[in-house]
Amino acid sequence: MDMAIDGAAAPSLASLLHQSRSLAAQQGRSDLPAIQLGLEQIEAQSRRLVARAAPGAPPPGAHEKAHYFLAGAGVDASQLGADVRRVELRGAFEMLEAVGDTDVESFLRHSHEHLILSSIEEGRRETLADFNQSMARGMAHNWQKQRARIFEELGQHASTSAVEDFTSAGPQRGASAPPQTQLHGRMMRYDSVLSSLSSARLASQPFPLASALSTAVSTAASPSAADAPLAEAWAALASIVGEQVDAKKERFVGPAVRERQFACAYGDAWEKESGRELRNQISRGGMEFLQRQFEQHMDSTIAANPVKAQLGGAPSMRARVAAFVRVVHLDRDGRWAGDLELVSTAQGPVPVWAHIYYLLRTGHSSLALDVASEHDAALRSSDQSGSSSSGSSFVAYLKAWLDSPDRRLPKALRDRFLAEYNARFRSSSSLDASSVDAYKAGLYKLLGRIDISKRFPPALTRSTENWLWLQLSLVREQDEGKERYGLTELAEKLVGYGEKHFDPKGTRPMHYFQVLLLCGEFERAVAFLYSRPQHQVDAVHFAAALAYYGLMRVPTNAQTSHVDFLTVETTSSGAPRGLLDFAKLIQRYVRLFSRSDARSALQYLYLICLNSDAPAPAGQEQTKKCHDAIRQLVFETRQYFDLLGDIRSDGTKIPGLIERNLSLIHLANSRDYTSQIVCAAARQSEAEHRTRDAILLYNIAEEYDTVVSVMNRELGASLFDTPAPSAVADASASGTPGAARLQPEASLAAAEDTAQLARAILDSYEQQNHIVRAITPRKRETCKVLLALKDAVALYAAGELEKTLNTVESLDLIPLNKSDVVSITRAAEQFKDMDEAIARNISHILLLVMETLYKLHGAQAQSPFGDAARQQRMNELRNKARVLMMYAGMLRLRIEQSTFSQLTRLDVFIH
């Protein structure tokens, strides 16, 4: 269709197509794909254009504008319009082959093709949707694992930096950091105690753990300011569990505290009778510690003020109390404080109420009763309420209170006591008024457990220890209803106050830790102490001690937090209860030194199994976590022989450290140990391609058939790797690679490479009939063949070509000495029965043999001698090369194409 506008040749559709293609070519961009539209796509786009233009007519003047626009481009619009009108469009969208109304076969074929295309498209969409869903599930699953690993790594680095940065950066909230040398020394002393604990546990003997750890802290060569409160905290724990020890002889002087003694009462039975008894013991132990602590404070106060105290040379407890009262309440002129109620005695006026209180405060209740009895008349006469004629005196109340097992006044006596209390104290404006002796008011409030929710006089609660002792003195576990004030309620009160109440400046973390410890909030106490970097080591060992005594609750896997060690659950009674992830705490700590001291790390990992008796499923999960942690330690440190044991080349088995301590990780026998620890570590090593480690571990586990399988797989994978220098040297010197065997007493780990290790193991196995019977014969023969091939590779590298050829011929893998086609064909058919470890190397084996033949043939051809023997040898080598090519041709599909080309080239050179 040629047209002329203004004397110029009008472009045709073909020329436009050519110009468009030329334009694309001139761009020179390979990233622009060529657009090739099929008929269906052209049809679809045409219909879209028609549908887009159909709804409305072109605007006025559009044709004229288009005419001028096209004319400027050299297009005759009127002529093109005429040509388009002449085009027959009736059959444009019809099928190329018309389908008649009666052509059923064509219609069905057309429908069938459409169904196939629709099915393919639907399958594609379903496959894509399934892939997206599977990918999303996989990413979510992997993210859960990665998130847990990230949190674990963050915790590891936090712990590590906490230890390393003690000297470079101060810990949180202004607490002073111990020097790194002191911290390391404390860790070593702690480690020594835990080693002694493991020995005692193996011997089924009780061990005074809290007392031993307290001694380890207090006997530091270079004590720090933090050691004193730390030793007090250990003493508090020893008091709570009732551990009485002769420090010099390091043995119990009272009833021995056994391993996990309180686990049952602290677990499921916490709300039952045994749980109430344990709570009473915790309260009583806390009070006894506070009493001993106050007695030490009293002695140090007296020693600091000897003149004012006026204490004699051999003072009794009563004399020490009297001296302390003088130091505290006498002014410079020797006058008593005005708020004290004085009783006239032969020695003059004495604040007897203060004496009685401090004797109770230091735990000398019988002496307090003696003082009250001696001054009974004076106490009666000093009563200003006129109630002394009621028939009861304070001495009677005190005696009844002390005689009661749970320190409770009988109901009738308490009613009279309450009446006296109301008459004497509630009529006053307040308990701390100047007219009321604070010690007297406090004693009455204490004996009668009156107004529990109200405060004691401020003079008695100026320190946290004094306040806490009074609160513990009020604790009773049998009370119900409004009068209930047990250890749980006290703990809730303390937790509600928080650290800022007891340590506003945050400079005494051990102070708040001790408060939580004395009220039985053991999990919260450890979690709080671990949050202070300078005390993380101490927190771990407090957790270990609590777990040993059975005073540690652990969460199930479902309750475990990825970030925090502490989780809180609500009991059936509605009270909150803490759970501590003890296993994670131990693992974080062990990572600090596991690579440098795996033996010590094991002592800590053993402790995880202490909680195996926790309520299900937590107990079983703790055991599994312990085993997992031990396997990970073995896998990371790779100290297999110290930890798992060793097998020498002569078959002698030496048990490892873990096997000697099976009872500590709750494994009944060596079979369970092999299955749970050794085999699992071997499988993990194999999965991570630490094949040499896997071989050694499977050998320790006595999985002999698996050992040979792994050796075959590794030998096959590394058959043509560069031989070890020693193997090449042996082959070069003696022509017998692998001749150097391990000494009988040598460890199998001393082998230089897999080949030497496999030889040592195979030699050891063949000397023991029970092992030989446990190995599949074919696997054993395959191992021998692979070792021989390994020798051939070393011989070839050493230039021992004749011995290389003889070694390969002795294996009968390649029918080099066969001349008939039947034998060669039979050998090729037997290839399918060849072990995969050998079959995968057939290309390299054939090439090795052919190169050996080529070099031997070349050496014979270059020989200056022309005797018949040389010609005969050359003919033999050519025949072997011909047989090898026939054999390779029958295995053409199993041989790499590049290898076959090299074989052909070498064969041509030989012939």
TrEMBL record:
Residues 161-185 are annotated as: Disordered. It comes from the Eukaryota. GO terms for biological process: poly(A)+ mRNA export from nucleus; protein import into nucleus. InterPro entries: Nucleoporin_int_Nup93/Nic96. GO terms for cellular component: nuclear pore. Pfam families: Nic96. One of its GO terms (molecular function) is structural constituent of nuclear pore. Keywords: Membrane, mRNA transport, Nuclear pore complex, Nucleus, Protein transport, Translocation, Transport. It is found in: Nucleus envelope; Nucleus, Nuclear pore complex. Belongs to the nucleoporin interacting component (NIC) family. This is Nuclear pore protein. It comes from Tilletiopsis washingtonensis.
